[in-house]
Amino acid sequence: MKILALHGPNLNMLGRREPEVYGSTTLAQIDQALAERAKAAGATLLSFQSNHEGALIDFLQAEGWDADGIIINPGALTHYGLSLRDALASLKCPIVEVHISNVYKREPFRHNSVVAPVATGQIAGLGWRGYMLALEWLL
Fold this sequence. Notes:
- The chain is an alpha/beta fold.
- It is built from 5 helices and 5 strands.
- 34% of the residues lie in helices and 19% in strands.
- Strands 2-1-3-4-5 form a 5-stranded parallel beta sheet, sandwiched between helices.
- The chain is globular, with a radius of gyration of 14 Å.
């Protein structure tokens, strides 16, 4: 089983960026926890982060066709990343959209996701553990 974990813009700053909103856990710690759990279940996890929409799309086009599931936190691309949304829509595996904060309790522009209509499900507001819940569901 092959699972992809994609992280959009600014998620490389987790642990430093607005810890009152996003917590103190770093992206490296999240990826390590995901990889360890996937390995324990006999799955392979490939993680990728970029601040550039095209790089995320390139990764999906290279790795997504034989993926069994995708966990994605698109960051700000959630609200306007139509080319990322289209790349996700072209794949046949389940997709779980994850947000560390509860985007629905924040600014109104954060309430709209262009990714949600092509995702199988969405987890928001449960901190970094939302990634782990997404992984458990995919496994």
